[in-house]
Specification:
This protein has about 240 residues and is of the alpha/beta class. Helix content is about 30%, strand content about 20%. The longest helix has 13 residues.
Amino acid sequence: MISYDFHIHSALSPCGDNEMTPCNIVNMCQLMEIDTIAVSDHNTIGNVEAVMSVAQQVGIRVIPAMEVETAEEIHVLTLFPDLASAKTVAKLVYDALPNVDNREDIFGQQVYLDDEDRVLGYEKKLLISPTSLSVDELFESVLSVNGIAIPAHVDRHSYSILTNLGFIPPELPVTCIELSRTTEDVDAFFSARPELARYAVLRNSDAHRLESLVLPPAQLPCDFENLFDYCRGGVL
């Protein structure tokens, strides 16, 4: 078994609190006995290396990740087997963002941090814009580096593939979906959507502040080495 949370935002996401620093995130996950995490900021992996450095010191494993917004305004959680593959897709995603400056007074700061929580700088381009990548193009790019693309928070009414498209296209190579940890009646959700029973399911916090991590950790019945294969294998 692994306890996990693969959808955590750092202070680099403009909607993430400035308290969401590498050290604070790792320390809170350690307190909650979460042993495998992913910091998945909007359209960037800019703080992932710092989180990996902090987490290594306490034995928490970190999967390189980001939450990408497609041209259809669909949020997709992307997980990568290593930092090199994450950087490849992250560059593609960053280049696909419109050249719109962040307005800190409206959206909040976008803070780059090191592994001692020191501020390295601020991202000027607005990271929460939709990219020009279609959902098909994004899936193709992620899968080309052996990553996993997961439609995010499919139970929500905004930025969800089910809300924006009405269904998961059968030609889209989806094997896993994300369900919000805040959804209480999971059985009712799947009863209303029986076509989703074929997919693996992850339950993540989508934490933008530290208190959102104070939840009993979700667990998967597999080890870390088999995690990606597990998410590609269908029903959990």
